[in-house]
Each structure stands twice: as structure tokens, then as C-alpha cells.
Amino acid sequence: MARLSITDQLADLRRTYTGENLSQAVPAVRDGAPLPDATTEAQRQLEAKVLLAGCTAASMLQLMPPASIIRPAHAFRTVEPGETLKLHLNDRALGPLLFELLPRVEAGYGMGVAGLRHQQYRRSSELTTGDAGVVLVGVDENAWDLGLRYVRWMHEFRGVEYTDGGGNDEETAEAATGSALLRRVHLWHDASWLRALPMGNAWFVEWPGGPQEDDIRQKLAHPEFGTSREITLRRAEAPTQDVEEGMRTYPWPDEFVSAVTAGEPDQGPARR
Question: pTM of the prediction?
């Protein structure tokens, strides 16, 4: 078997961090830095907030029928690091992610990203604050509308206040670390889920199952694909028992359940 070129070797290594396919990774390592970080503070801030939102959204994915904590739950499938970050979402993740990101006022508090707005393209959507943005690949107009249907239902279910503006304009601590983690989030794709949050001068990252701590630590220390940011790692054991029956009673509306299950069994009426 012929030895891979340096470009191919770098592309294969990059793919372990990003989940990209070869057609995405090869041109990237050929034309630029092996795995570039965000270059502006505005972009780092937005990406850190997207990571936090993605971790919370994954928790909601576990409640979607059929509710399970045994089934892995991740919002992000693939990332394409660049000047504008491109994200490929897992099935059903768009609605929960948009709910966490789009500005709202809930119980008197601004939540979501203040000033975040939407730009629609034919095959993708962009979330932008004007000076920073992330592209949601494959989210066409129909997919966007379905995601907003989830958001509107959550607003009604949780009593979100409808006001002009809204959102949270506070800066995320050590945003460069959160951004770096988002651009390398595929390292945890085999874990049951991922939790990441800023704590002091570092970020704390926890996951059950999947890669060992030493493996993640070595990859984050890689001279070309890793990061020098301070990150505290903790791996837990994967869950062996599924959710209790009571967790399967989340009140999903009939019309929404049929849409989100995408061929999976709906919950019966007794479970809603």
C-alpha cells in the first residue's frame, strides 16, 4: 500500500478532531493552517456560546421520544473550522439549539445571544451578530421553519415572554477556550454526551464513556491540532440503566412528536 502524502496524513489527523470527510479536510490543510482557531474576540465569544448551547440542546435530545440516556446525544456531527465556522448538526438538534441561542426573555431574565439574527441561504442558514457568525450547513428554509416550530412551542410551554430585543449580552469567560473546544468537538463523538463550561481561568469538560482522559489530553496537546488553552478533563462511566418511566412523560404535542421522531416510534398517548 502506497504511503500517504503529508497532506493526506494531516487531513486524516484533522478529521479526528472535526469529523470532516476527506473532500473537506484535504483542501483545508493544503491551503491553510492545519486546524485554525478563531481570529477575533467576537468570533470566539459567539463560538463559546454556541458550544454551551449545544451541550444544553443535547440534554433535550435525550428527552425526545423515545427518551433515553443510553442513546448518545450530541448536537454537533461535524465542524469545519475556518474564518466562519461551519457546523453540521445531528438529527433533531436544530430546534433545541435554536431555542438556546435565539434571544428571549424568560422569568425576567435575558437568555440566548443578544443581537443574534438569522440569514437564510438556499442550502444553509447563518447565525450572526454582525461581527461574528456560524453557518449551519444543510439547514434550508424548510428545515429552519421546522426548527422555529420547536422554538415557538418551547416558548409557549415555558411561558417565555415575548419582548423586543432580549437575550444576554454578557461575555463568556475564557471564550477562546470554548471556541477551541467547539472546533475540536468531534474528539468526543463516541461519548454518551459532552458537558463543557467555563470555571475561573479554565474550562471544565466532562463526558461519560467514549475516549479515555489520557487520549483526549494527548490530542489536545498535539503541536499542530491541539490547543494550549487551560482545560480540566473528567471522564465518567457510561450509563448502564436507562431513564425512569417518569422521564418519558415530557408533554410533546402530537403534531411535533410526529415531526421530530423521523421514523422512530412515537410516544403513546399515555406517555404524553
Answer: 0.91
Cα gap 239→7, rounded to integer Å: 39
Compute φ and ψ for 179, nearest 5 degrees: -60, -45
What DSSP designation does 3 have?
P
Give the integer Cα–Cα distance in Å for 270 and 272.
6
H or E segment and range at residue 198: strand 195-199
The CA distance from 209 to 72, in Å, is 10
**Per-run averaged pLDDT (10 residues), the chain, 272 residues:** 75 96 92 91 98 96 82 95 94 93 89 95 97 97 93 86 80 98 98 96 96 98 96 95 69 64 46 37
> Dihedrals φ, ψ of 153, to 5°?
-65, -45
- CA gap 267, 262 in Å, rounded: 13
Q: DSSP code of 2?
A: P
